[in-house]
Amino acid sequence: MKKTVRERYFNGECLSIIPKKEKNKLEVLEEIIKLFEKNRRYNEKEINEILKNLYPDFAILRRYLVDYGYLNRDKKCTNYSVNER
Predict the structure, then answer these.
(1) Which of 19, 40, 41, 58 has the fewest Cβ atoms within 10 angstroms?
(2) Distance of CA 50 to CAs 11, 53, 59, Å?
(3) Which pTM value belongs to this model?
């Protein structure tokens, strides 16, 4: 039986490893974005607080979420929101 994304890459609520394969990385980001409310604005500190509970390098997770289009960041780079997919 095939393992779920959570079984492969998470240890409880924490992310164990960021996968190198693009497909797997996208699956992990799909799981992570579920932690954020749609139709809400977050400041960077709030984003960091959520992500630092998942993985020590929370900045890379934030960067991936923005770069892959899961989070929108305003022009001042101070507020974030979930991108409607």
Answers:
(1) 40
(2) 16, 6, 11
(3) 0.91
Where residue 46 falls (left for φ over 0; alpha for ψ -120 to 50; beta otherwise) is alpha
Rounded CA separation 78/13 (Å): 26
CA distance from start to end of the chain: 29
In this structure, the number of other CB atoms found within 10 A of the CB of residue 28 comes to 23
Residue with tokens 């190198």: 20
User: What distance lies between CA 1 and its chain's CA centroid?
Assistant: 26
Q: Among 76, 69, 79, which residue's Cα sits nearest to residue 26?
A: 69
Estimate the crossing angle of helix 44-52 against helix 58-67, to 10 degrees. 120
What is the model's pLDDT at position 3? 87
Q: Is 13 helix (H, G, I), strand (E, B) or coil?
A: coil
Structure-block tokens of residue 1 = 């039986």
